[in-house]
Amino acid sequence: MKKTVRGELTVFFSLVFLLLLALVGAVVESVSIQVGKNEKRADAGRAAESVFAEYQRDLLEKYGVFALEESYESGQISEENVLNRLSFYGAENMDIAIVAIRYMTDNSGREFFRQAVEYQKMKTGMSVVEAVLDHQSAWEEKEYLAEEYEGEDDKTDADLQQILQTEEQELPDEDNPLELLRTWKSGAFLNLIRPNEFTLSEKTLDSCELLSERNLRKGYGTLYEKESGSGDAVFFNLYLLEKFGNATSRKEDAYLQYELEYLLEGKESDAKNLEAVTKKLCNIRFGINYAYLLTNQTMQAEAEALAGTISILLAAPAIIPVMKQGILLTWAYGEAMMDVRTLLEGEKVPLIKTQETWKLSLESLLDIEERGLPIEKKKEETGMTYKEYLQMLLLTKNIEVLAMRALNLVELNISSMDGKSFFKADACITGAKFQMDCPMRRNVNYQFQVSYQYH
Q1: Which phi and psi angles does 148 have, rounded to 5°?
Q2: Which tens digits make up the pLDDT trace of 311-362?
Q3: Which of 290, 410, 412 lies closest to 360 in space, CA to CA?
Q4: Less Cβ crowding at N or C end of the chain, within 10 Å?
């Protein structure tokens, strides 16, 4: 008798096995596709890193700033150059588009400013900020003095002329200290305060060639933007002081010799920039010096005695108070000219004068027109140098103005180097984001983004 065997379990397990096999196949396929995606992302990431490793070396060596020069030293500026390098470094077989890009000149040089600040923070640390800000508060007080006494000579001269008219007298120009002061302010100022051994630079620039005067390439899209910190302006100014020369510490290979003076004034020649800066320093020193004279009874007595002598010659005693005031104003300005000359000699000038640090005698003041500023023999051990005075002036300037003027110099200095005429600061990329479109097998299309930004 034959036994009948039922096959329900065999069919069941066969179906389960097929389902398991399909599941395993689907998992394997999914893993395979995901591995492929990871490989594509890795390829794109390595390609982006490799592209941005081709930073402009002169920019880094001279200024400590990272940027990718978009023309690759060809002078042919195009985003295609970057896309071709991405493909070369492993992002081949991908459709690539740039969805965000930043240039060094974007937002009035914000990218340049950011990197300069980071460079200086790593070099000097945060402790330097407090010391500079302490100096700044003292400097702002002295600037206020200069503004307060600005125009005091015109007011005093008007008072003097009114008294002379009332007395029916006339004061010769050579006996009028205020006339002497006007001559100094309006004349060839640099010739008055320039040290004998100081060689005045004749370098100029064509403002039409400056990047700040042309239509710049502009970035687009969204990239990481770091907010400015409270001490960033100080770090940026320290960076400018280190990377750019000035009248007492020149960089011989620079397009302009007085670079910091250009950053402050933005004029087209070294001579004009230096004159503008030294006049500004002289005006500030004038306010400080005049404030000191008002506290020194001995020097006020000297000025009053001279005013009395002049009044006797004119038989007009009413002019003594006004004439004394005029003598003090002229004396303060003469001392300020001495101070600026001392700074250009590379020596120090105290911010606040004392009897011991005052240089110009009243007798020498009256001989300046004929003999020039007297030669100093004593050098001060304490005080501020010309560079430190410039630092205080920099702190009063708008950061965006300073950044763009600095970029003007960066471009001029690098493009004037041998074989670097291609260099344009607005073709220097500091970051970019790429949209990658990758065809996979089984009609899978993988899209993702890769970004790189110098920090």
Answers
A1: -65, -40
A2: 787 777 788 888 898 899 999 999 999 999 999 999 999 988 899 999 999 8
A3: 290
A4: N
The model's pTM: 0.88
Pairing of strands 95-103, 445-453: unpaired
d(CA 230, CA 236): 12
The C-alpha angle 346, 348, 350, rounded to 5 degrees, equals: 160
106 CB burial (10 A radius; 0-12, 13-18, 19+) = buried
Residue 229, both tokens = 């910190």
320-344 and 152-167 are packed helices; what angle lies between their axes, rounded to 10 degrees?
Answer: 150
Of the chain, the end-to-end C-alpha distance in Å amounts to 89
Type of residue found at 271: A
Question: Helix 106-124 vs helix 232-243: angle between axes, to the nearest 10 degrees?
Answer: 80
**What confidence tens digit (pLDDT) does each residue in 61-74 have?**
999 999 999 999 99
3-class DSSP string for the chain: CCCCCCCHHHHHHHHHHHHHHHHHHHHHHHHHHHHHHHHHHHHHHHHHHHHHCCCCHHHHHHHCCCCEECCCCCCCCCHHHHHHHHHHCCCCCCEEEEEEEEECCHHHHHHHHHHHHHHHHHHHCCHHHHHHHHHHHHHHHHHHHHHHHCCHHHHHHHHHHHHHHHHCCCCCHHHCHHHHHHHHHHCCHHHHHCCCCCCCCCCECCHHHCHHHCCCCCCECCCCCCCCCCCHHHHHHHHHHHHCCECCECCCCCCCCCHHHHHHHCCCEHHHHHHHHHHHHHHHHHHHHHHHHCCCHHHHHHHHHHHHHHHHHHCCHHHHHHHHHHHHHHHHHHHHHHHHHHHHCCCCECCCCCCCCCCCCHHHHHCHHHHCCCCCCCCCCCCECHHHHHHHHHCCCCHHHHHHHHHHHHHHHHHCCCCCCCCCHHHEEEEEEEEEEEECCCCCEEEEEEEEECC
Q: Which residues contact 148 (CB under 8 A, 6 or more apart)?
A: 287
Q: Which residues, in sequence order, are CB contacts of 343 under 8 Å at separation 6+?
A: 248, 281, 349, 385, 386, 389
* Nearest Cα residue to 326 out of 340, 311, 344, 342: 311
CB atoms within 10 A of CB 1: 2
Tokens of 400: 């965006």
434: β partners = 98, 450
Pull the structure tokens for residue 79.
């985003």
